[in-house]
Write a structure and sequence with these properties.
The structure holds two protein chains of two kinds. By secondary structure, chain A is mainly alpha-helical. Chain A has 17 helices and no strands. Chain A is about 70% helix and about 0% strand. Chain A is flat, with a radius of gyration of 27 Å. Chain B folds into two domains: about 60 residues; about 230 residues, Orthogonal Bundle (MetI-like fold). Helix content of chain B is about 75%, strand content about 0%. In chain B, α1 crosses α14, α8 crosses α14 and α9 packs across α10. Classes of the chains: A mainly alpha, B mainly alpha.
């Protein structure tokens, strides 16, 4: 009786006492065990996510490790200006942006296309086989994938060059030529991610009401029309949501794979913001500079995310918030 | 007439579908098959560029070498420890948190959710994170590998969706029987949630097995290096952290063969277990994507 919020007694209670501290204390007390269960989780987020957030202030200071945080002096936007005026800024931002943009243009449609084709397959066994094999590369580590790339494309013994030279052409030094980096990166991303990325679409496709298709067939629609008028509109919310998430991350090009694939000879196309930050901050010890660039990256990502969400709101019914 | 044409169209369309999918199957399998084949072939055949997708003159020298290398074995041991400890910790903290967040009556529930979602979009960055780990005294310890990624917001949200869908009646009957929230969680909800626990547990486990950057950033002593770091060292320099290991004992080894064998040695555990557990992963993603 007392647990039911809407019971007469409780409503009367609340209106006499009004909301206030008593209610909050009660809410805390009632969910005290739940709060206990939540505690380790929150401690983690505070310790490893929120406390480091204060660390961005290092970007505005001339941080020296031996001086510590308090004693390092404030320098305002000095390191941001340093970055914007440096020779590095343009190539690094360009590389990050291009890698991100190409990865969306080429990489985003692939899982969708794969899912659409897979959806048309009648033979369940074959369908399952292809699906299962397709997500296997997702579970390989970045080190392994980069390792396979480097072994296959190696200019000495790699099988790709073996085939090329057997066909009579000159061997190509794929890994040392900056022109190839983006293609290698994106193709291998597709190789690794297409199957896994398709899972969401496959689930969405499976949830489309078959009666819609039956009605369309009766109306004489062929496969193509069905695709455009039924399939795509039905999974449009899924597509848009995923696209939004992708675009929001366009400048957040992952560190690990780029770092493992790059070498100094190809920095001109392969150096991205995250690897640049790593080199500045960790290898060369310019903590403040590295943090400043990193903060710049995070802010830009937020701007992208918010803008794309706003655009999505304007043109469709789906948006992230 | 119309019947005939539609059968013809049907055939071409179907043929293309299957062709496309077969192509994808091959593209995925062949690189791995190639690495596998080279790792098992003899030097001569490799140097003559004769090995493509099946081994020639099979011998296990490369494997013998890699699997008796101290650094590799130690790294294997480390990875197992990190994965087991990390998965257990991550799973417990995530599950407890997810269950708690799935209850609307949790005090400040919406607030906690916002706190968590913010971390998905904003962070201090690599350098503050590194300095933080150092300050916490975790540098060069197992905890630096396991704790920074203790809870993944994505996994947390997926698990929360599982719990939101959990039938309330069971919990209510537990309450009537006198259990408090902890009791309901431990005795009633957990035993029935094995599927979601397995999915999320596996996500964490695979993430920990494959992690390279976290150990790379936070570990310094070779004794603590996990498999991915040793593998990388092997691939880049042909040595597993020592400068000495290239001669391969009595048989002259093509350094490449060692690399191929090391790659295989890192992926065989995952590939062996994969067919049996892949359905858990898929379930996890599906729920996560639809609800989340």
């Amino acid at each position: 009786m007392y647990n039911n919020k809407n019971s007469a007694i409780n409503i009367a209670h609340n209106s006499i006492r009004g909301n206030g501290k008593k209610n909050i204390m009660k809410a805390i007390f009632d969910s005290r065990y739940l709060l206990l269960l939540l505690l380790p989780c929150m401690v983690y987020f505070i310790l490893f996510h929120y406390i480091p957030m204060w660390g961005v202030l290092i970007a505005f200071k001339d941080f020296k490790v031996f001086k510590g945080f308090q004693n390092s002096e404030w320098v305002g936007f000095k390191y941001f200006m340093l970055f914007f005026k440096s020779y590095d800024m343009f190539p690094v931002i360009r590389n990050t942006f291009l890698l991100g943009a190409y990865s969306i243009i080429w990489g985003f449609p692939m899982p969708l296309i794969f899912a659409l084709v897979l959806n048309e397959v009648r033979n369940l066994k074959f369908k399952k086989l292809v699906q299962t094999v397709s997500y296997m590369p997702h579970f390989l580590s970045t080190v392994v994938v980069v390792g396979i790339i480097q072994l296959v494309l190696s200019s000495t013994n790699g099988v790709a060059n073996q085939v090329i030279s057997n066909l009579g052409f000159e061997k190509i030094n794929f890994l040392q030529k900056s022109a190839y980096f983006r293609s290698i990166y994106i193709v291998s991303d597709i190789w690794q991610g297409m199957g896994w990325g398709a899972i969401v679409y496959i689930a969405a496709l499976a949830s489309i009401d078959p009666q819609l298709y039956e009605a369309a067939v009766i109306d004489g629609a062929n496969k193509f029309v069905q695709l455009v008028k039924i399939t795509l509109p039905c999974i449009a919310p899924t597509i848009i949501t995923l696209l939004l998430l992708r675009v929001g991350r366009v400048l957040g090009v992952g560190f690990e794979k780029v770092f493992l694939l790059q070498n100094p000879t190809i920095y001109s196309t392969s150096d991205v913001i995250s690897t640049f930050v790593y080199r500045q901050g960790m290898t060369e010890g310019n903590f403040s500079y590295g943090t400043a660039v990193g903060l710049f990256n995070t802010v830009i990502n937020l701007v992208f995310l918010v803008s794309s969400n706003t655009l999505a709101k304007k043109f469709s019914e789906t948006s992230l918030w | 007439m119309v019947q005939q044409r539609s059968i013809l169209k049907f055939n071409i369309f179907t043929f293309l579908k299957y062709l496309f999918l077969m192509f994808i199957l091959l593209v995925i399998i062949i690189p791995i098959l190639h690495v596998f084949s080279v790792s098992l072939s003899s030097n001569i055949k490799i140097m003559n560029n004769e090995v493509t997708i099946y081994p020639k003159e099979i011998n296990f020298n490369a494997y013998k070498f890699v699997l008796t290398d101290k650094n590799v074995l130690n790294a294997y041991k480390n990875t197992f420890i990190y994965v087991i400890v990390g998965t257990l910790l991550s799973l417990s903290v995530t599950t407890a948190g997810a269950y708690s967040l799935s209850k609307k009556r949790l005090f400040f529930q919406k607030g906690w959710m916002i706190v968590i979602i913010i971390t998905m979009f904003f962070s201090g960055g690599m350098i503050p994170a590194f300095l933080n780990v150092k300050k916490l005294g975790l540098y060069d310890t197992m905890w630096a590998v396991v704790l920074p990624s203790l809870v993944s917001s994505w996994n947390l949200i997926v698990m929360k969706s599982f719990f939101v869908a959990f039938p309330e009646e069971i919990e209510e009957s537990g309450k009537i029987d006198g259990l408090n929230d902890l009791g309901v969680f431990y005795y009633l909800v957990l035993p029935v949630s094995k599927a979601s626990l397995s999915s999320i547990g596996l996500f964490y486990a695979v993430g920990l097995w494959n992690s390279y950057f976290t150990p790379f950033l936070y570990l310094e002593s070779k004794a603590r290096f996990p498999l991915q770091i040793v593998l990388r060292s092997m691939l880049v320099s042909g040595t597993s952290l020592n400068a000495i290991t290239l001669s391969g004992g009595d048989t002259a080894m093509v350094p490449e063969t060692l690399k191929y064998a090391t790659v295989m040695v890192s992926i065989i555990p995952i590939m062996a277990v994969y067919p049996f557990i892949q359905k858990y992963f898929v379930k996890g993603v599906m729920v996560g994507s639809i609800k989340g």
